[in-house]
Design a protein that fits this description.
Blueprint lengths: L5 E6 L8 H10 L12 E5 L29 H5 L7 H5 L42 E5 L8 H5 L5 E3 L6 E3 L9 H5 L5 E4 L4 E4 L4 H4 L6 H5 L5 E5 L6 H8 L4 E2 L10 E4 L5 E3 L5 E5 L3 H8 L3 H16 L5 H7 L3 H4 L4 H5 L10 H8 L8 H14 L6
Parallel strand pairs: 1-10
Antiparallel strand pairs: 1-8, 2-3, 4-5, 6-7, 9-10, 11-12
The chain binds iron/sulfur cluster (2 copies).
Amino acid sequence: MSKRQLAMVMDLNKCIGCQTCTSACKTQWTNRNGRDYMYWNNVETHPGNGYPRKWQESGGGFDAAGTLRPGRIPDLNQDYGAPFDMNYQEALNPWAKGKPGADGPPHLQPVQAPQHGPNWDEDQGAGEYPNSYYFYLPRLCNHCTNPACVAACPRKAIYKREEDGIVLIDQERCRGYQHCVAACPYKKIYFNPLYKRSEKCIFCFPRIEQGLPPACAQQCVGRIRFVGYLDDAEGPVHKLVEKWKVALPLHAEFGTQPNVYYVPPLSPFKYDAQGRLTDERRIPDAFLVNLFGPRVPEVLKTLESEREKKQRKQPSELMDLLIAYRHEEMFKLDLAYYQKKADGAPAKSATDKLRHVIPIVPAESLEERLENREVAAGNHSGETT
Ligand code: SF4
Ligand code: SF4
């Protein structure tokens, strides 16, 4: 059990699916060196298959008795979608190989036809016009209180930081068995085929230790993300999770006790066959209950009634919180907490700590990248090395 627990709340009523968070994370942590296919933060459309494909049906987590459930390792091509290259040379530089043919230069397109990818079913959703619906679900590691990845690792390479509950992988100890990939029911651990180790979201701990929120939260265009400690009664996370009880964990039944919470999305009402508005929401409650648990209808009612108060120009602490006027009110971190030295020992530098969890992998050539794609595909068959 960690001393404190960092947590994040995301208000799904405000996510616009712009992927700025995804880009902020990718450019900071995973844009090269065997990490091409990794999306420590991804945003997927629901209803949809998500990323990796059908992660919700991949097993892992714990059963009711607290025993690890078997899980599967997603396939690189079919479930993640292997990174592909574009034909820039031919499409954008047609004169490099002589004059273009009668049909002109080829269209800009992937060299290898992709089978899947992040955001593969963007904006498809479900339902028939005029009652069709969808919403966006941003996802990252939940830095769970009872992490299945930790329980599954025979090398004890994965650990939960005592000071704030961030879950990290010790790269010195990891041997790339991928039991953690199978065990995480959210599929938020990725195998690095170049380095042959597992890697995951580090909740931007070097930023956290400077009193700053993770990059995904800082950059979020919709201002949907709140970051803080669950025990900080004055913080936004505590208020949304514990006081107002409108932020719910995703798939709590997986048994890992996630520390990323979601304010479920309201939706417009349906039209009947004659084109009249009904009082039935377009996103079926049952769909949201499946994701966020049985308290969803109660939470939606609270949101509606507080929203109406605000419309009547009455005060609403909840709506003011969710509108998120200022970053200072959305992110409540604690720089002084990290500056205290527990035992007087010299603190490790941020670079040393980072090396411990994100190794520096030499850059690869295009040929090596293509070769490693095959290696990754092999490793994702579930073999242990
Ligand atoms: Fe581990 Fe998965 Fe929980 Fe993250 S979401 S702590 S990877 S079990
Ligand atoms: Fe949603 Fe914010 Fe990410 Fe945009 S940056 S997709 S609004 S979570």
